[in-house]
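Cross-check.
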Amino acid sequence: MTLTTPVQERYTRFSCPNPQCAQFNRPGEGNIAHRSWTGTHKHIERLRCTACDREFSEREGTLMARSRLPEDTVIQLVKCQRWGVCDEGTADICAVDLKTVHRLQQVAAQRAETHHRQVVREVDVPGGQLDEAHSKLRPHQVAWIHTALAMGSWFLLWVDVGPRTQEQAAVMLAQVVARVRELPLFLTDGWKAYSAALLQVLGIVYRRRRRGRVGRKPKPRLVAPKHLFYAQVVKVRNQRGQVVEVDTRVVFGGPRRFMKQLRLRQLGTTIQTAFMERWYGTLRGLGAPLRRRSRCLSWSRVRHRGRLWLMVSLYNFVMPHKSLRQGRTRRTPAMAIGLTDHVWSYREYVWLPVHADRVRRQQMDEQIEHLLPPALQGYPEGSPPANLARTETRREKAKPILKAA
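Predicted model, tokenized:
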């Protein structure tokens, strides 16, 4: 059989991997053309960018890159990871070595995180739920899974593995704020670190004016902005650890204003975190190391985080959700949030080219670093605050005046 040059429409999903090219990481621009066929059986296609004359393989940036496995085997490996099969079981089912499974997990996890960082930007999220889940690692280690989920679309905005500290909560909030178009409404459990982390990321510096001429000047403090709405769902447990009561409280925004925003954004009429609890149930069912009393625990924190990112990527783009169905049309969280217009197949996910964009990554990292430092850290008396445009002064019988740093 003689291979012929395919039609030009076949190259719409490819993009130039050259960072110096003007068409870098921009698929569908019509700048990709056929070059030649390579490989032992002449089954690998070489492409060329007409803008910069860069030649590259069709496998570059995909899960097939630098792999000798057939396409069906790679798809089968991804399916096993999607259904929560352990590594030894995946190697046995797919008839490959255990090291091959670990290599696929490493490559797929890095590719999934890179794709998420570059695609999830300027998304419309009316409300978000944040929570942390307990997971175990060998030998006798604990890894907390921090997750931010978009209400209404079930889209996972960000996940991370780290300690249960205020710094980690601030990192999660900074990632969410940097990727949404407008500030969403926040719902969490009763962990106190979220309130302090919200003030750290979004708070403004309030400097009260000294009333008299003598005495020390009042110290500045962080206050919540008027457009911040945040509520908590607090579970009261007895001595046995059983939940006996569930309380709700509005921390920022006021009860009346919060409930009004909840109705205006079509997020229901009650304060709850059911979406996040349902996601953790799905995660523990699909991830072998995350199940209760499982013997398939991870030995490496990096591999543990990699499995999580692969599951998140498949959950957002490949797995359709029953509650998002519109008539007979199945939809994924990525379709509900507006990032794609169809359900991705496993073959489409495997062959999706992902090229790391260092410029966009650096811009996002700078934006997150700007949100992370506490506004009152290193703030000597009489000097401007560390966070730009986050200073508020209030005079007696006068409206608040915003001052830029």
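The radius of gyration is 25 Å. The chain is about 30% helix and 20% strand. Passed to J.P. for a second look.
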